[in-house]
Amino acid sequence: MPSATRSISDFDGPIALLVELIERSQVKITAVSLEHITADYLESVSTIKQSDPGHLADFVQLGSRLTYIKSLALLPAASTEAAEELSALEYDLSEYRRYREAAQTLATRLKHARLYSRGAPYEHPESKLPLAIQLDQLSQAFQSALIRSRPLGHTTIVKHHIEVTTIMKSILSQLSRGKINLRHVIEKCSNRLEIIVTFLAILELLKNGSLTITQPNQFSDIILTPATV
Amino acid sequence: MTELANIIEAVIFAATDPVDLRQLIHVTGKTKSEVATALAELAEFLEHTGLRLSSHNDTYRLLTSPVAAAALATYHDQSIKPDLSRPALETLAIIAYSGPATRQQIEIIRGVGSDQMIKNLIQRGLVEESGRSNEAGRPSLYRVTHLFLQTVGITNIGELPPLPEAIAAQ
After folding, report:
1. ipTM score of the complex?
2. Beta-carbon separation of B153 and A115 below 8 A
3. Long-range pairs for A137-146: beta carbons < 8 A, 24 or more residues apart
4. What count of CB pairs under 8 Å joins A to B?
5. Does B48 touch chain A (CB under 8 A)?
6. Which helix (H) or strand (E) holds A212?
């Protein structure tokens, strides 16, 4: 009787689990052995924590498939159907095992001869911050900039026409020469409207993947980094 | 090597992205057949050098020879550690061997929802979208990338070891 619940990530998937159980018991999968295998399988599944209903459903689905085949095998009249279902199950397991073996070969290759292209190796995106955090930092920086900025004087009627695309181009051309400090970008803005348009421009560039945002520590400057290819 | 093969070698070297066959035809002003012959010539020639010609989806790159793997890992200050989980490798194997594949095709073999796994592999640059299937709902198709080839040390998808034969469960 299993005492601890296991996380769904302990299992590679329902088919992987079933294949493992079959290999461990070292029996050929037949209508008879299926009884025992199904029991093992259902017991393993019962130890899974309820935390991930989506993936748990995949395990339950295979469990019900096994139970269905088992019940068919018990009915003499359904023996043909039982044999067909069993055969289909064997096929699915066999398909999985082919790819599992192919994956093992790939794993070996991963350890050895890697080929390189020119330049720096591909940078794993996980080393960059998730987009949500970048957006958060960006909006905080702009909010404080807006608070500090001078409002457009209402005695002066000036037609301000600044396009987001113009600012985007300007930032991109600065980025082509290297990283940019956001504070310097904002300091160059002469009024609040320009700050807002600049914010929109950087947001667009962030969205289309032209740049990423880093903030080395909590109160340091925000740096705009050109995206690596 | 012929001059055309030399020119193509130079173009692929100078390019930062993989070079398209159509681009090679355009920049050399030669026919598709002439370019293809020159590419085969280049690939063969490079087999004896420290570089290799890699081809994937009609695009070409120069890669390093496998013999340099250790030296380059040291150069880049990288230890060659495989950080892909078994489920990730299985998903990659499915896409590599039967790709372009839809999410559903992948899920049928693995028996588990694979949306997140595919997204992770795309993020790591090993998988990319490659159009849509003609099936109902026009689901996205996924294929392995140039980076995948590099990572498993092959220069084109044909170099993958053959998929194991159907294995009876026990």
Report:
1. 0.84
2. yes
3. A137/A213, A137/A215, A137/A222, A138/A182, A138/A199, A138/A202, A138/A203, A138/A206, A138/A213, A138/A222, A139/A199, A141/A182, A141/A186, A141/A222, A142/A186, A142/A195, A142/A196, A142/A199, A145/A186, A145/A195, A146/A192, A146/A195, A146/A196
4. 161
5. no
6. strand A211-214
Is B162 an interface residue toward A (CB < 8 Å)?
A: no
**pLDDT digits over A147-190, tens only?**
777 666 555 555 566 788 888 999 988 888 888 888 888 888 88
CA distance A210 to chain B (A): 16
Strands across the sheet containing A211-214: A180-181, A223-226, A211-214
CB-CB neighbors (< 8 A) of A94 in chain B: 166-169
* Residues present in chain A in total: 229
Q: Identify which of B21, B25, B31 has the alpha carbon closest to the alpha carbon of residue B60.
A: B21
Separation in Å, CA of B26 to nearest CA in chain A: 23
- Which residues between 98 and 157 in chain B have a beta carbon less than 8 angstroms from any beta carbon of chain A? 108-113, 123-125, 146-147, 149-155
The shortest CB-CB distance from B111 to any of A14, A54, A119 is to A14
Query: Hunting for tokens 């700050």 — which residue is that?
Result: A195
Give the Cβ contact number of residue B100 at 10 Å.
18
pTM of the predicted model as reported, rounded to 2 decimal places: 0.68
